[in-house]
């Protein structure tokens, strides 16, 4: 099965969410983060579901997000280890 190249499944599409009673829900809007398109052009392509030469699979975005989260967690773990060492030194 071939991918359907829409904004919603593109690496550069950033979906918008609302927070209702502490839970996030995806809404039927978003924006393009590709800097090669100006705001007016990207809005037109999203609204009309027009093809885009900059489309890339959303899997790239998901992998980049996973790697970013892993890096943040590694950094947090390092900081926690530093706090633990400080607390041990104070005993």
Layout of helices and strands:
Elements: E1 13-20, E2 23-32, H1 39-48, H2 58-90
Antiparallel strand pairs: 1-2
Descriptive report:
The protein is of the alpha+beta class. The protein has 2 helices and 2 strands; from the N terminus they run E-E-H-H. The chain has helices spanning 39-48, 58-90, and strands spanning 13-20, 23-32. It has a two-stranded antiparallel sheet with strand order 1-2. A hairpin with a 2-residue loop joins strand 1 and strand 2. The longest helix has 33 residues, at 58-90.
Q: Can you summarize this structure?
A:
The chain is α+β, with helices and mostly antiparallel strands.
Rg (C-alpha, Å): 20 Å
Strand content: 15-25%
Q: Between the first and last Cα atoms, what is the distance in angstroms?
A: 62 Å
Order of helices and strands: EEHH
Largest β-sheet summary: 2 strands, antiparallel
**Number of helical segments with 4 or more residues:** 2
Oligomeric state of the chains in view: single chain
Main traits of this protein?
elongated, 20% strand, two-stranded antiparallel sheet, alpha+beta
